[in-house]
Amino acid sequence: MGKEDFVKDITNIEEDFAQWYTDVVLKAELADYTETKGCIAIRPYGYAIWENIQNYADRKFKEVDITNLYMPLLIPESLLNKEADHVEGFAPEVAWVTIGGTEELEERLGIRPTSETNMSVMYSKWVSSWRDLPILGNQWCNVLRWEKETRPFLRSREFLWQEGHTIHETEKEAKERTLMMLDIYADVIENLLAIPVLKGQKTEKEKFAGAESTYTVECLMHDGRALQSGTSHYFGQNFSKPFDIKFQNREGKEEYAYQTSWGITTRLIGAIIMAHGDNRGLKLPPRVAPIQAVIVPVASHKEGVIEKATEIFENLNKKYRMKLDTRDNYTPGFKFNDWEMRGVPIRVEIGPKDIENNVAVLVRRDTLEKETVDFDKLDKRIGSLLEEIQANMFNECLENRKNRTTVAHNLDEIAKNLKENQGYVKTMWCEEVACEDKIKEVTGAHSRCIPFEQEKLGDKCAVCGKKANKQVTWGLQY
Questions:
Q1: What's the CA gap between 396 and 196, in Å, rounded?
Q2: For the chain, which domains are there?
Q3: How does pLDDT run across 324-337, given as a tens digit for each residue?
Q4: Is-above-0.70 flag for pTM?
């Protein structure tokens, strides 16, 4: 099979982005559809990416004193109903268990869409004094939300995530923790996944059900649509009051605690695919890639080729995540295309002539550039090349975001910009929900956030023309 034939198996990214995405997920063996409608099987290669995200994030959490715990999958209906705004926001997505074995349950059990309620009722048992605070808990788990439309990684009924739930003595401490965790998410996404983020606060309309305020890291995909990639919520006392999370403060008086919640999910795998991929398939940033470099022997039937490739693999595998492709039922050309499609950052080619010259050929996935490197310099060069690729992939995403970010001063301009150059549109906003709704009605775009780094683009709302002090970024979303 030639290169051209192989590449045709993936839909052109510019012609049908949605089908291209599905092709990459399936052909790179990241996930597959299952007999359970709306749920996917995450295959080993896709799960290895999630493990790398999980390991990096978990290490960052522990650096700021977060400890892991685990809560039940099932939530009694009476418990789920305790916080009114929260249950109203999640009610359409909750799946219910009504029968246990052959007997109908006395009370329905919700399959967790999120664990604020379970966490809160336990915190109410564990907290009695200011000396018990803070509690800085997190769980890595699955959740279930009965989504009507699903897409692998981006939106499925069951998905994997982490959900952090912390409880504090003071409002100040809780708010600081909320923003601290958002900064960690920005670190994960920018430094591990090589995707620049837009940080800011969600509008009242877009905030999490039950939160006083919600903060977000937004990422722009190759096609100009936005992906909410991580959120951190300040609850204040919205959950501690109905769940009776009280403590005796330093003055000996009873007080309700202050709470936060924050999470990232396997949708970050979808972000990697859509932010970096191309017509050859997946393109993985080296720091998150399960395989950082693959060695492909050329003319492996000739004497000494496999032996030399194995020797180099064993040396490099001590330091990097390596793969040696000794499959004898595929041609080198097929293997080149296969590993490019799977997004491996570096390919190492070793053939008889290379061995004679004591060199290997390195091919980088991001630019497809080739270079010849002496065997004794391979270790050092692969290390530096991985960092070059990581930086270049981040910069390419940053350039895409820059090219797809525009400014608008009225509704017509917002619609025109989104139609001609789908991406972020920055405007001034009066903070009225009616204007936010109007933009969605006319363009389909949602407010992404009120950026922390505000720009003064004028003094009038782009929709109603009234006085505006807030700059908002809008965009179509996944």
A1: 10
A2: 3-276 (3.30.930.10), 293-387 (3.40.50.800), 405-475 (3.30.110.30)
A3: 999 988 999 999 99
A4: yes
